[in-house]
Design a protein that fits this description.
The complex is a heterodimer of chains A (363) and B (640).
Chain A (H helix, E strand, L loop, with lengths): L3 E10 L2 E11 L4 E5 L6 H9 L6 E6 L2 E2 L10 E4 L11 H11 L4 H15 L14 H13 L5 E5 L7 H18 L2 E6 L2 H7 L2 E6 L2 E6 L1 H6 L4 H6 L6 E10 L2 E6 L2 E6 L8 H4 L3 E7 L5 E2 L5 E12 L4 E6 L4 E6 L10 E6 L5 E3 L8
Parallel strand pairs in A: 3-8, 3-9, 6-7, 7-8
Antiparallel strand pairs in A: 1-2, 1-4, 4-5, 9-10, 11-12, 11-14, 12-13, 14-20, 15-19, 16-17, 16-19, 17-18
Helix pairs in contact in A: 2-3, 2-4, 3-4
Chain B lengths: L1 H10 L1 H40 L2 E4 L4 E4 L3 H6 L3 H32 L6 H7 L2 H4 L2 H11 L6 H8 L13 H29 L3 H9 L4 H30 L2 H6 L11 H11 L3 H26 L11 H9 L26 H34 L3 H4 L14 H7 L11 H4 L1 H32 L4 H13 L5 H14 L5 H25 L4 H8 L4 H12 L1 H17 L2 H6 L8 H10 L6 H21 L1 H12 L3
Antiparallel strand pairs in B: 1-2
Helix pairs in contact in B: 2-20, 2-21, 2-22, 2-23, 4-9, 4-11, 9-11, 9-30, 11-14, 13-14, 16-29, 18-29, 20-23, 20-26, 20-28, 23-26, 23-30, 24-25, 26-29, 26-30, 28-29
The chains are: A alpha+beta (363), B mainly alpha (640).
C-alpha cells in the first residue's frame, strides 16, 4: 500500500502540452478518479504514475520515495488497460502468473496467489483458456485479475470498462469497487464517464486540457462545481445553462431569463462575488434537470412549452422552449405532458448556480 | 495562467533533454546492428561504385586512372545507351502495368467466396516462389524454336507446318520476356492487393450498396482509394524489379538477338563483366540507380499526399471538448426535403445475374489455376521425361515414357551406370547444400537484425533520428543490386573471399535486410503497444518485454519475413554468378544456368530435374505458409 503524490507534473509532446503542472495527492487506500473528456491528458498522467511515460517536469512520489526516474517494474504498480492487453499467446493462468514469475516467486506462492485472485473474480473455470477464447467481459475480468494478483502498491486503471456493454459495465464497476474496498489498494482510475467516476470514487479529479479543474468527493464536485466546465461535465443529463440578465437590488439579485422575471437571494452567489455583478450584467444560470420539476410549487418559477418528451423509466425528461432558450426538466412519468403543452417549471434557489460568462468561473 | 506555466516548463528544458536521451537509448541499441550492417554492405559499396564510375581501370595492371565524369559523358550520348534506356523504360511500363492488372484481377477473384479458394490462394503464389533462373529455363524451353512445347502444340494441332523460332525474332523475344516477367511478378502483386482487400471493413461496402453504388462504382470509389497505400508499395516493388530484371534476360536471350533485348541491367553487366570496362559499367549502373531513386520519389509524391495527414490531437480535441460546453440558446426547427430515388434497371434478372456470376467466377478460378500451376506442372513432367523425348523432331507434347533417371543423374554424384553423364549434373547436390546453408544463414541473420530494428522503428517512429534512418533504409531498396556487385567483386577479391559461401551471405544481406526491417516494422505497427506496457508493469525490463511478450506475439510477422528472406536468397542468381567461380560455393541457380552454357542433348532431362529440385523448397514453403504471408503483409504494408 502506498500514497501517491504528483508534484507539478507536466508532460509535453513537442509543443503540445498533455499534462500541465498537475498537483495531486492520493492517500493510502484511496480510490481516486481522473475524469475528463478524451484527449485531456488524464491517461498520460496515469502513464506517468505507472512509469510508462517520463514526465517532462515535476515528480511522482510513492509514500516518501521519488519514483520519477524508476522503470515501471521497479515501482510495484499494476495496471488494467482499456484494450486489456492480455498476452494472446498465453493462457489465463499464464497471463496472471507472468508478473509473479517476473518477481521470481516460488511455484507454490504463484499458484496460491493465482488461485486466490481467480477465486475473487470467478475465473477458475477459465484458467486454461487463451484470451481469444474469452468473451469481452471475461477478458476484462482476466485483466483485472492479472493486475490484482500481485496485490500491488498502486492499482491503475485506464478506462477499463469502456469496451463493455452497458449492463455488464454496471455490474463490473460494482465488482471493482468491492474488490478495491476489500483489498484496500490505493487506486487511480481514468475515465471520461462521469457516472462511473461518481459511483466508484472516494474523490474525483476533473481534468481539462491537462489542468486540474476541481478535486473533491463525488457529491461535492456534483453539487458545488467550481466552474462552468465541471458543472456541465458532471451530471447526466447535463446541467441546463442559460443566460440570465441580472442586477443586485433591494437585497436580492433581480434577473430575467428569456423575459421571465426571477428573484434570486443574495446567498445564491459567494459574498465576494456580489460586487462583480453590480448594476447590470449578463450571467449564466445553471440548474440541473433533476432540480427543475414540471408543475412543482417551488420558490422560483419559469414557464414554457414542451417540444420533446423523453421517458427513461423512473422519471420522464421534457424539453421545454422558454421562448428563446430551451431547458430540460424532470416530471413524474404518470403525469407527463404532451408535446405542445404549456407547463410551469418549479425550482429552488438553493440549487441554482451562477457563473461569470467571461472566466466561466462560479460566482 | 497558462502562459506562466509553459514558461516554467521551458525553464526546465534541461531535465527534459536528459530524459529524452535516456528514452532513445534502447531504440538506438536495437537499430545499431542493422544500421552498421547496412552501412557496410550497401553504403560503402555504393560509394565505392561511385568512385569506380569516375575512374578508368585496367584489370591487368590494377591501375586506376581518374577520368572525372568522362565515363558518363561517353556513355550518355551513345546510341546503344539511349536504345537500352528506351527498352528498359518500355519493359518496365508494360510489365508493371501488366502485372498490376493481372495481379488485381487475381486478387479480386481470390477475395470472393468459392469452393477451393484457399488452396488456390496458395497455388497462385507458385510462379513467384520459383527462382527467375528456373522460370527462364522453363519458359525459354516452352518457346524453344526446335523442340519447344509451344511449337509442339501448334504442330500437333496442325496450325503451323514447321517450328517457329520465337526467340529469334527481336520484338517477339522482348515481349515474351515481358510476359514471363509478368507471370513471375504478378503473384506478389496479387498477394499484397489481397491483403489490402481483406482489410477493407465490410461495412464500407455495405454502406455503399445502401447508397446505391453498383459493383464497378464500388470498386472505383471504395476499393481503389482504400488500396492506395498498398498500390504505392506494389508499384515501387514491381517497378524496381522490372528495371533490375536480369536473370530472365541472361537465361532466355543474353541481350539478343542483336541488341533487341539489351536492357540497362544487361548492358551494365556486359560492360563490366564481359568487356571488363568497370568504370563505364559502374557509370551505367549509377545512372540506373539515380533513375530508380527519382522514380521512387515521383511515386511517393504522386500517390501518398494523404499519408502526411495526422490524426487530430491536442488542439482539435480541445476544441471538440469546448463545444460540449454549449449554452442553451434558441431552438432551430429542422427540416430536409426528401430526394428522388434513381431508378436503375439491369439487363438481366437478379437470379440470372447471380447464376452468370457463379459461372464466370468458376471460369476465372480455373484460368488462374492453369496459368499459375500449368507451367510448374509442365516442368515436373519434363523432368520425368527421357532426354530423348524432349528433343524429338518434330516436337510433340506427349512423352513416350516416364522415368526418374534424370533425378538419379543429378542426385547421385558418382553417376549412374549405363547413363550418359555430364559434369554439370554431378555438381547439383553440392550446390543444393550451398544454397541451403546460405539461405538458412541469411534468414537467421536478417530475422534477428530485422526484427529488433523493425521493433524500434515501429515504436519510436516519433524520433526524428529514427525516422530519418528509416527513410534512408527504404531508399536503399530502390538501388539496383547490380550497382553493388562491382564493388563486392573487387572487395571480396582483395579479401580473398571470392568463391566462398561467406561472400554470398554478406552480399545477400544488402538485398534483404532493408525489406526485412520494413516487413517487421509493419507487423509491429499492427500490435497494440499496450501489450509491452502491460509487460513493463508486470515487472519486465524493456528488453525482457520485447523478448518475452512482443517477439512471441509477432510470430506470424517473423514467419512472413523469414519466408521472404529465404526465398530471395535461395533464388538469387546474379550475385552468385559473379561472386563464385567454382562448384564449391556455387548455388543451385548458377548450376542450372550452367547447363545452358554447353548444352548437349542428354543434358536436357537432368537440367529440368535440377530445376524442379531448385524450385521445390521455395514452392513447398510458400504453399505451407501462405496464410502467414497474407497475415504478415496485411498489417505490414498498409501503413506504407
Amino acid at each position: 500500500m502506498a500514497s501517491v503524490t504528483l508534484q507539478t507534473l507536466s508532460k509535453l509532446y513537442g509543443d503540445v502540452t498533455a499534462v500541465d503542472a498537475l498537483d495531486l495527492r492520493i492517500t493510502d487506500g484511496e480510490f481516486l478518479t481522473l475524469l475528463g473528456p478524451s484527449g485531456c491528458g488524464k491517461s498520460t498522467a496515469l502513464a506517468c504514475v505507472a512509469g510508462l511515460e517520463r514526465p517532462t517536469q515535476g515528480a511522482v512520489v510513492f509514500d516518501d520515495r521519488d519514483v520519477t526516474d524508476l522503470e515501471p517494474h521497479q515501482r510495484n504498480v499494476a495496471m488494467v488497460f482499456q484494450d486489456y492487453a492480455l498476452y494472446p499467446h498465453m493462457t489465463v493462468q499464464q497471463n496472471m502468473s507472468f508478473g509473479l514469475k517476473q518477481q521470481r516467486l516460488d511455484g507454490a506462492t504463484i499458484d496460491r496467489q493465482v488461485a486466490g485472485a481467480a477465486d475473487l473474480l470467478g475465473l477458475g473455470p477459465l484458467l486454461q483458456r487463451r484470451p481469444a477464447e474469452l468473451s469481452g467481459g471475461q477478458r476484462q475480468r482476466v485483466a483485472v485479475g492479472r493486475a490484482v494478483v500481485r496485490n500491488p502498491a498502486v492499482f491503475l486503471m485506464d478506462e477499463p470498462l469502456s469496451n463493455l456493454d452497458a449492463a455488464l459495465r454496471i455490474r463490473t464497476r460494482t465488482e471493482i469497487k468491492r474488490l478495491q474496498r476489500e483489498l484496500g489498494i490505493t487506486s487511480i482510475f481514468v475515465t471520461h464517464d462521469q457516472e462511473e467516476a461518481m459511483v466508484l470514487s472516494d474523490r474525483i479529479a476533473v481534468i481539462r486540457s491537462g489542468q486540474l479543474q476541481q478535486i473533491g468527493p463525488p457529491m461535492e464536485v456534483y453539487r458545488e462545481p467550481r466552474n462552468l466546465f465541471v458543472a456541465s461535465f458532471i451530471g447526466s443529463p447535463a446541467m441546463n445553462i442559460v443566460e440570465l440578465e441580472a442586477s443586485v437590488a433591494d437585497g436580492a439579485i433581480a434577473g430575467t431569463v428569456a423575459g421571465q422575471k426571477l428573484a434570486l437571494p443574495l446567498a445564491a452567489v459567494a459574498r465576494q462575488s456580489l460586487p462583480r455583478i453590480g448594476e447590470r450584467k449578463t450571467l449564466l444560470l445553471g440548474i440541473r434537470p433533476t432540480d427543475l420539476v414540471v408543475g412543482a410549487a417551488r420558490d422560483l418559477q419559469l414557464s414554457g412549452s414542451v417540444f420533446l418528451v423523453e421517458p427513461v423509466g423512473p422519471v420522464t425528461y421534457v424539453d421545454v422552449d422558454l421562448g428563446g432558450p430551451t431547458m430540460k426538466a424532470t416530471c413524474d412519468p404518470d403525469q407527463a405532458p404532451a408535446a405542445g403543452d404549456r407547463v410551469s417549471l418549479g425550482f429552488s434557489a438553493g440549487r441554482v448556480r451562477l457563473f461569470d460568462p467571461t472566466g466561466e468561473v462560479r460566482l | 495562467m497558462a502562459v506562466t506555466r509553459s514558461a516554467s516548463a521551458v525553464a526546465d528544458v534541461g531535465i527534459r533533454r536528459r530524459r529524452d536521451r535516456e528514452s532513445l537509448r534502447l531504440p538506438l541499441l536495437l537499430t545499431l546492428p542493422a544500421l552498421i550492417v547496412v552501412l557496410l554492405v550497401i553504403g560503402l559499396p555504393f560509394v565505392y561504385s561511385a568512385g569506380l564510375s569516375l575512374h578508368r581501370i585496367n584489370m591487368l595492371t590494377q591501375r586506376w586512372v581518374f577520368v572525372g565524369l568522362q565515363n558518363y559523358l561517353e556513355v550518355l550520348p551513345d546510341s546503344d545507351f539511349i536504345a537500352a534506356f528506351q527498352r528498359t523504360l518500355y519493359f518496365a511500363v508494360i510489365t508493371v502495368l501488366g502485372g498490376l492488372v493481372l495481379g488485381m484481377a487475381m486478387a479480386l477473384v481470390l477475395n470472393m467466396r468459392f469452393p477451393g479458394r484457399d488452396p488456390l490462394r496458395s497455388i497462385v503464389l507458385v510462379p513467384w516462389a520459383m527462382s527467375p533462373v528456373a522460370v527462364g529455363i522453363l519458359w525459354g524451353w516452352m518457346f524453344n524454336g526446335d523442340y519447344g512445347p509451344l511449337n509442339a502444340v501448334l504442330l500437333d494441332l496442325g496450325i503451323v507446318d514447321k517450328p517457329i523460332h520465337w526467340l529469334g525474332n527481336g520484338t517477339v523475344a522482348f515481349h515474351l520476356i515481358a510476359l514471363v516477367q509478368v507471370w513471375n511478378q504478378a503473384p506478389l502483386t496479387s498477394l499484397l492487393i489481397l491483403a489490402g482487400l481483406q482489410s477493407i471493413p465490410e461495412n464500407l461496402h455495405r454502406a455503399a450498396r445502401i447508397d446505391g453504388a453498383g459493383p464497378v462504382q464500388r470498386f472505383v470509389r471504395i476499393t481503389l482509394p482504400w488500396l492506395r497505400p498498398m498500390l504505392l508499395l506494389v508499384l515501387i516493388l514491381t517497378t524496381i524489379n522490372s528495371i533490375m530484371a536480369f536473370d530472365l534476360f541472361w537465361v532466355m536471350t543474353k541481350g539478343g538477338p542483336g541488341s533487341a533485348t539489351t536492357v540497362f541491367s544487361w548492358m551494365g553487366y556486359a560492360y563490366a563483366f564481359q568487356f571488363f570496362k568497370f568504370g563505364q559499367g559502374a557509370a551505367i549502373l549509377y545512372i540506373l540507380s539515380i533513375a530508380c531513386l527519382i522514380l521512387a520519389w515521383v511515386y511517393l509524391k504522386l500517390l501518398s499526399p494523404s499519408a502526411r495527414r495526422r490524426p487530430a490531437r491536442g488542439a482539435a480535441a480541445e476544441a471538440a471538448g469546448a463545444a460540449a460546453l454549449h449554452i442553451q440558446g434558441a431552438r432551430a426547427i429542422m427540416s430536409l426535403p426528401r430526394t428522388a430515388l434513381a431508378q436503375r434497371r439491369g439487363l438481366l434478372s437478379g437470379k440470372a445475374r447471380r447464376a452468370l456470376g457463379r459461372v464466370g467466377l468458376g471460369i476465372a478460378a480455373l484460368l488462374i489455376f492453369l496459368w499459375s500451376f500449368g507451367p510448374f506442372l509442365w516442368l515436373v513432367i519434363m523432368s520425368v521425361s527421357p532426354s530423348a523425348d524432349l528433343i524429338r523432331s518434330p516436337p510433340s507434347l506427349i512423352p513416350h515414357s516416364l522415368t526418374f533417371e534424370n533425378y538419379a543423374f543429378v542426385l547421385s554424384p558418382t553417376g549412374v551406370a549405363g547413363g550418359q553423364m555430364t559434369v554439370q549434373a554431378t555438381r547439383v547436390p553440392l550446390s543444393i547444400l550451398n544454397s541451403l546453408i546460405i539461405a538458412v544463414a541469411v534468414t537467421a541473420i536478417n530475422l534477428v537484425l530485422g526484427s529488433l530494428a523493425g521493433y524500434a522503428y515501429s515504436r519510436y517512429a516519433r524520433s526524428r533520428l529514427l525516422a530519418g534512418t528509416l527513410w534512408v533504409l527504404m531508399m536503399t531498396r530502390m538501388l539496383p543490386s547490380l550497382a553493388l556487385i562491382l564493388p563486392f567483386f573487387i572487395v571480396f577479391k582483395t579479401l580473398g573471399l571470392l568463391d566462398t559461401r561467406t561472400a554470398l551471405i554478406i552480399a545477400y544481406c544488402s538485398l534483404i535486410l532493408p525489406l526485412c526491417i520494413w516487413i517487421m516494422k509493419g507487423y509491429f505497427d499492427g500490435l497494440p503497444p499496450n501489450l509491452e506496457k502491460a509487460a513493463l508493469v508486470d515487472g519486465c525490463t524493456r528488453f525482457q518485454a520485447i523478448r518475452k511478450i512482443v517477439m512471441p506475439v509477432a510470430r506470424p510477422g517473423i514467419v512472413a519475413a523469414g519466408i521472404f528472406c529465404f526465398l530471395v536468397s535461395w533464388n538469387e542468381f546474379i550475385f552468385a554468378l559473379i561472386l563464385t567461380g567454382t562448384p564449391q560455393a556455387q548455388t543451385i541457380p548458377v548450376i542450372i544456368a550452367g547447363f545452358l552454357v554447353q548444352l548437349r542433348f542428354y543434358d536436357y532431362g537432368p537440367m529440368f530435374a535440377a530445376s524442379v529440385l531448385a524450385v521445390l523448397p521455395p514452392v513447398i514453403i510458400t504453399l505451407a505458409f501462405q496464410r502467414y504471408l497474407v497475415r504478415g503483409m496485411l498489417s505490414g504494408s498498409l501503413k506504407g
